[in-house]
Amino acid sequence: MDENILEVRDLHYTYADGTQALKGVTLDIKRGQTTAILGGNGAGKSTLFLNLNGILKPLSGLVLLDGKPLDYSRSGLKELRRRVGIVFQDPDNQLFSASVYQDISFGVVNMKLPEEEVRRRVEEAMKRTGTLHLKDKPTHFLSFGQKKRVAIAGVLAMEPEVLVLDEPTAGLDPLGVSEIMKLLKEAQEEMGISVVLSTHDIDIVPLYCSYCYVMDGGQVVLRGTPKEVFSEAGKIRSVHLRLPRVGHLMEILKDKDDFEFTETAVTISEARKALKQWREAGARTRRVYRE
Amino acid sequence: MINIDNYAYLSKLKKTDPMQKLLFALLTLGVCLWANSIAISVLVLFIMGWVTVCRGGTPPALFMKLLLVPMSFLVIGVLTIAVNASDNPGVFIFSVYAAGTHIGVSLAGIHNAVRLFFKALGAVSCLYYLSLSTPMVDLLGALRRLKVPKLLVELMGLIYRFIFVLLETADTMHTAQDSRLGYSSLSSGYRSLGALASTLFIRAYKRSDELYTALEARGYDGELNVLEEPFNVRWTGYAAAVLVNLALILAALLMPQLTGGLL
What we know:
heterodimer, A: 291 residues, alpha/beta, Rossmann fold, four-stranded antiparallel sheet, 10 strands, globular, B: 263 residues, mainly alpha, 2 domains, 10 helices, 3 strands
């Protein structure tokens, strides 16, 4: 089995109005991991996502699923959309039914599975997303966070291999953000799903993502583990992004207050470790000095 | 409209098979219209009121208030039937002479008017029973089972779902305009309202595009196929619906003999 579930090769996409949204994007999505796509507004993230499950067909370049180029025939697209699911940013654009249960069942019913299997998957997706108690509520009674969960359940029920989420945390309260991210992590670990997400919520990236790409102007400008990417502070800022708050604090401590750290820290636990190391190193020097 | 929908979700009859409720409401509606009798109409009104309030748990005040909704229209309609014109003042209980003819109210006219009034109210109560006990989603499911054309049911479902989104968007936009003094004078109010309407149209268009994309991503192939939650179908429910209506028909047939044709 290939290490990469999705590979994007030199992808170009231009909209009908002439906007060049993607100008040669190349990236790999690793199997069974969470990959973040970062970038300011209009960097081309959403266009990239729509290319990943064949909603948009690239002008040139390739998208490979499991090593095979996407098949844009009718049956090929059907298969593709079963394997690569997209959760859109605004759940109101995705939930078409006034019934939560019916909406979640839509994608699975389209897969032409037997009814018991559809019911099992819908129930399971509702349990996984914590929406079981919303079953009898109409969609328009739900809060934004609840709608988001239902939208995720609707795609999870299809049991895709790749789950693509456009800004899954936008508009949620802090608790909502961590709950959604935990839910995605669980789905990824228990169902073996590969997750791709775009976000402006920089602080969650080092916590939940194992790899990230930074896009700007339709191109990938930076790639690596969150630690690697966030050590390029200047480049990150030049594309309208920022460091995680903790990373920013550590940067200031290092540059302005003469703290000495051996490696970059971008999460609370990493910063804690680095600060403890610094304290111990300091204690050692003081001891040496006294003796 | 939105309120009725909320109450439907709260009704204790929500879990009942929607097909059964639909059958009951439509059968009774049919009988009420066919019987054309004051007594039957009043009976229907009470039966529907009882089922909705006592079995469904809808607040009685709400049911009464809803019955008042068609009242103004009903009163005007009924008055035009009660008041007649004739050359012979003898047929009227009360009349005035105007424009070369007698205009007044006759006993038959009053009878007709009262009959029509209760018939309309009884019929409306059947529909209130249905809409206060059955959420739209369940009703659409029942229509689907009755083989109503798919396109129609899908369209109804989408309209129902997005009416709320549209209203919410319009409301937000109105608030945003209002907070920038968009409705401070009559002329600016008209201007703001025009802008709101056109923007709303563009938004709706854009949203439909995005909805289509999202549906496509989940394998949409021209039909909105979904799985419905099963209802407990009990034949006793259907039997009750039929029996009540048979009783009503019987009563309607016997009524003229018992009351001498007055009711």
